[in-house]
Amino acid sequence: MTIPSNWYENFFHGLALDLWRKALPPEHTKAEADFLVQALQCDAASHLLDVPCGNGRLSLELARRGYRVTGMDIAEEFIEEARALATKMDETPAPQFILGDMRSIEGSSIYDGAYCFGNSFGFLAYADMEKFLNGVAQALKPGARFIVETGMAAESAIPKFKELESHQIEDILLTIKEQYLAPEGCIDTEYVFERNGVSESRLAKHWIYTAAEIRRMLALPYGRATAPLLTPSPAARCLPRPIQRNATTVRPLAVEFPKTRSSRTDKNRESLFSTATAGERCVSDRVGGDGMNTGNSVQ
After folding, report:
1. Is 115 helix (H, G, I), strand (E, B) or coil?
2. What is the pTM of this model?
3. Rounded (to 5) percent helix, strand, coil in the chain
4. Per-residue DSSP letter, 71
5. Which domain CATH number covers 38?
6. Which of 143, 146, 150 is CA-nearest to residue 134?
7. Alpha-carbon distance 8 to 62, whole Å?
8. Which of 68, 146, 147, 159 has its CA 20 to 30 Å from the CA of residue 119?
9. How many domains are there within the chain?
10. Nearest to 298 by CA among 113, 168, 120
């Protein structure tokens, strides 16, 4: 199968989004928000960037805790849903949601922290990843932290790679057909969603970066900087307690650089967590999975 590099522009609609809405319970979102509060080290009312934000599940949860949040995503359906949910919030200010491409982040020194959850960090080839990271670096204030989830890093994705597998998420059957293209360093995937006799197919391409490659990306000088913005330093993350979901358990996990490891959380998610700090900015690098896009729109 031939999958274009811009596959994500047409992926996120219909059953793919319905599945993601069902995939994560509220307890999981709250646990991830707990981690972000701890890792970002931002005061209440700080301005955070959620990119890509999906339907705003984390943006909305952090707003309830007093943070100002701006979410950005390419999935129009999810952005409309996030905006509708934000209008129903009692908390002020409500999150703001932008329909846009993660390679086109605008502004300079706006945000006190940022995060990229889900597996969307690998949706882009290297040149586009540089555009994304440059935009994040420009948009962060000096000393801000950036949390990256990379459950599709090579150390997590390759050991669990299967050419064919299926998962039942409530009333949706998901079949995943994958091909690992080692010379290109990517996994090409066909997702087949089935519900009530209706079947929808989506194609996706995920670039597989090693933890070392991700560290090198974060260590590059971006924007106006003359020295690397992102220099790795040790940190750890652990969920506060096991989370029950459909008879599976998300177990506590703590991993830190430079010791790169992956650990199974549930049958569909693996996580690797670390932190990076830098002269002008700090970058926390957190690794896990948020569904098939669990980040760019499946957040």
Report:
1. strand
2. 0.75
3. 25, 30, 45
4. E
5. 3.40.50.150
6. 146
7. 26
8. 68
9. 1
10. 120
End-to-end CA distance of the chain: 26
Q: Do the domain assignments include residue 161?
A: no
- Cα diameter, the chain: 57
Q: Pairing between strand 248-250 and 263-266?
A: unpaired
Q: What is the pLDDT of residues 170-192, one digit of tens each?
A: 999 999 999 999 999 999 999 99
CB-based contacts of 183: which residues, under 8 Å, 6+ apart? none
Distance separating alpha carbons of residues 49 and 80, to the nearest angstrom: 18
Beta bridge partner(s), residue 277 = 231
Cα–Cα distance, 229 to 231 (Å, whole number): 7
Lookup: tokens for 282: 């700090």
Give residue 168's pLDDT band: very low, low, confident or very high (50, 70, 90).
Answer: very high
Is 83 part of any domain? yes
Domain around 138:
7-152+208-287
Q: Is residue 267 part of a domain?
A: yes
Residue 69's beta-bridge partner residues?
48
User: Distances from the Cα of 72 to the Cαs of 82, 198, 262, in angstroms?
Assistant: 10, 30, 28
Whole-number Å distance between alpha carbons of 69 and 220: 26
